[in-house]
Amino acid sequence: MVRDVAEGRVDLGLVDGAAAPTDPLHLPEAAGLTTLVAGEEPLAVALPPGHPLAGRTGLWLGDLADALWLDAPSSAVPLPVLRAATGGAFPAGAAYEGTDTRTLHALVAAGHGLALLPRSAAHADAPAVTEPRLVHRVEVVHRAAAEEAAALLASLLTAGAA
Length: 162
Hints:
Blueprint (H helix, E strand, L loop, with lengths): L1 H5 L5 E8 L14 E13 L11 E3 L8 E3 L7 H8 L5 E4 L5 H9 L5 E4 L9 E4 L3 E8 L4 H15 L1
Parallel strand pairs: 3-7, 4-5
Antiparallel strand pairs: 1-8, 2-6, 2-8
């Protein structure tokens, strides 16, 4: 999406990912583009039933650095982001290329690995990540010519989340 905006194929786009609450998303290909925060929410860990840490309200990701994780970059926070945030191993269990979170939850429930998701995509009892402090952020990426439209979209998305 960022490349499409940078090359002028689209005027603006939405991108998402995990970041520290005070940092923008890491988008190296967005040089020369403008980004606006359209929303952010806490992250939660999808755990299988009976997991020893299930039932907690919050977790430190470092406590799970040696657990198997789903390699599901299109539907969960990518493993390289987890590794960069904590320096932990976060070994991959099964790989899932899809985007359906129901399938992702079924893989977690079956014991194929854990997953880090935006709070709204996790089950209600999934513990939130308390350390390191990370959020799921959505940003509007745009070229200067689309500044007014991007600001309007960001404000509409932000207002809808309130």
